[in-house]
Design goal:
Four Helix Bundle (Hemerythrin (Met), subunit A); 74% helix; disordered N terminus; elongated; 7 helices; mainly alpha
């Protein structure tokens, strides 16, 4: 399979197909309704790409690069916030990553961030560690898809 085919499959394949390739929910998949969503929403991604192509075609690559280089730090910050039971930092960081993910079409990442954001807003952190682990796995799927797009 060539790189272009890999890209299309990761963009279009729901998480459960990723899991079907030998990974379970526990060791690398996304559970529940989110498992039915692709790593990247092609319509959102292509709409942004089209809009940017008219103004600054190189900006799309820069946005992807920014997302890929800054998201690991945000994930670390989320993990630290959970370790310290810092609901406010969890809320703010999840909100930032939610927006960044949605802008590029990583909608499952965005949805998971929204759930973490709400946990931070309410101060109810029960289950947040599991949600973050899910987000980390889903980010890895999105990262691979974005890398294949380069």
């Amino acid at each position: 399979m060539n790189t272009n085919q890999s890209y299309v499959q990761l963009i279009d394949a729901p998480s459960n197909q990723y899991i079907a390739s030998g990974r379970s929910d526990r060791d690398g998949g996304v559970s529940g309704e989110l498992a039915e969503l692709p790593a990247i929403d092609r319509k959102v991604f292509e709409k942004l790409r089209t809009e940017l192509a008219q103004v600054a075609p190189e900006l799309m690559a820069e946005l992807i690069h920014y997302y890929l280089t800054h998201t690991p730090g945000l994930l670390t910050k989320l993990r630290q916030a959970l370790d310290q039971a810092d609901a406010e930092t969890l809320n703010r960081t999840a909100h930032m990553l939610k927006s960044n993910s949605a802008r590029l079409g990583a909608m499952t990442c965005s949805t998971l961030c929204q759930e973490l954001e709400i946990m931070g807003q309410t101060g109810r952190l029960q289950g947040a560690a599991e949600k973050l682990a899910e987000l980390e796995r889903e980010y890895e799927r999105a990262r691979i898809a974005f890398e294949l797009m380069k």
